[in-house]
Amino acid sequence: MKHYSYNCKKMFSEDGWAITGDAGVFLDPFYSPGSDFIAMNNCFITELIVKQYAGEDIALQTAQYEKIFRTLFIAFGPVYEDQYAIMGNAKVMSIKVIWDFTLYWSGIALLFFRHKLTDLEFMQSAAIQLQQIYQINIQVQSFFRQWAEVDLSTDEMSDVFINYSHIGFVQQLNKNLHKELTDPELEQQLVQNIAFIKELANEIALEAVQLFPELKQHTPEIQDNRSNHLQDIFTQMGSRF
């Protein structure tokens, strides 16, 4: 299926109209959180409707909400662009799914659950942290592509099932979505999440390079102090794939 990803010129108007879902921008038909994008977009639209009915000038919010949503749209791009080939590698794709969950629940989803996407002041203060997450993700998604190209160990089909809901840090990230946090506490949670993301990226890179030394040239910055967040998963895959 070609040309399934598309854009639009404008999503929110200060004249009082807006578009959402497939009528606006569309990223990916198979793997992307399309309904999540709709939910985020509807939050912006609802906020604009409330403000306009209250008699407020929505010109600033209209422009800023559009900018935020399009930034989110671009930020999700590396998760999907040129990544379909990874789906043919059970080992790498299993780790990628865990990574994608981690990135999502550590950043954008956390802000969505705390109703912060429409808080322009907070989003401005969190921009540096979100940019850090984006930059780390670009490096790791590129690394996944390189890893899948050299790892031919899972060409045969496997019956291994990785139950992501049993992974401790995945459970904790999900619980964190529901925590009531003040703005300073939420900013601190973002900082902690970034530190964890860096640890996880390092662990993934070290595991892959140990198996395929030629990947070292493609890795994110590697530290010798390795965490063990995915050790059980790597052990399970190593014994069965």
Strand and helix layout:
Elements: H1 34-53, H2 59-80, H3 90-106, H4 108-113, H5 120-125, H6 127-150, H7 168-176, H8 183-211, H9 231-240
What does this structure look like?
InterPro entries: FAD/NAD-bd_sf, Flavin-dep_Halogenase_NPB. This is Halogenase. This protein has helices spanning about 35-55, 60-80, 90-105, 110-115, 120-125, 125-150, 170-175, 185-210, 230-240. It is built from nine helices and no strands. It has two domains: about 1-80, no CATH class; about 90-240. The chain is globular, with a radius of gyration of 20 Å. Helix 2 (about 60-80) packs parallel to helix 6. The two termini are about 30 Å apart. It is mainly alpha-helical and about 240 residues long.
In brief, what are we looking at here?
With 241 residues, the chain is an all-alpha fold. The chain has helices at 34-53, 59-80, 90-106, 108-113, 120-125, 127-150, 168-176, 183-211, 231-240. Helix 1 (34-53) runs antiparallel to helix 2 and helix 3 (90-106) runs antiparallel to helix 6 (127-150).
Features:
241 residues; mainly alpha; 2 domains; globular; Flavin-dep_Halogenase_NPB
How many structural units, i.e. domains? 2
Computed CA radius of gyration, to the nearest angstrom: 20 Å
What series of H and E elements makes up the topology? HHHHHHHHH
Q: What does the overall shape look like?
A: globular
Mean pLDDT: 90
Are there runs of 5+ residues with pLDDT below 50, and where? none
Helix/strand structural class: mainly alpha
- Main beta-sheet annotation: none
Q: How helix-rich are the residues, as a percent range?
A: 55-70%
Q: Which band does the percent of strand residues land in?
A: under 5%
Distance between the termini: 30 Å
Strand tally = 0
Number of helices: 9
InterPro entries: FAD/NAD-bd_sf, Flavin-dep_Halogenase_NPB
Protein name: Halogenase
